[in-house]
From TrEMBL:
The keyword Kinase applies. It is a multi-pass membrane protein. GO terms for molecular function: ATP binding; ATP-dependent diacylglycerol kinase activity; metal ion binding. Its cofactor is Mg(2+). This is Diacylglycerol kinase. The lineage of its organism: Bacteria, Pseudomonadati, Pseudomonadota, Gammaproteobacteria, Pasteurellales. It comes from Actinobacillus delphinicola. It comes from the Bacteria. Substrate binds at A29, F30, R31, Q32, E33, E68, S97.
Amino acid sequence: MQQTKGLTHLINSTRYSIKGLKAALSETAFRQELILTAILVPLALWLGKNKIECILLICSVLLVLVVELLNTGIEAVVNRIGTEYHELSGRAKDLGSAAVFVALVILFVTWFGILVF
């Protein structure tokens, strides 16, 4: 397969990214986090006292989306391999879920730290 370069590569990459985002919309957790994002980003712009606070508040929200996308990718690969239980498959899914949890803790700590202290 021939590797694309330049503008063609950028167009193809963008197309694949949009395809991935559309696929993520079929996931309940991603939709819930997208709703949370739609609420928290405008709130961050309103509550942030300066540009740095706004950026930190917004980036902590976007981090949750990024980690959820990666977790969904892990789950898709594990499910593709097979439906029977395997300890490593379970561990991979648990680790992906733990990563989302840590991202949510980062979001909470960031928002709490900026808004309360």
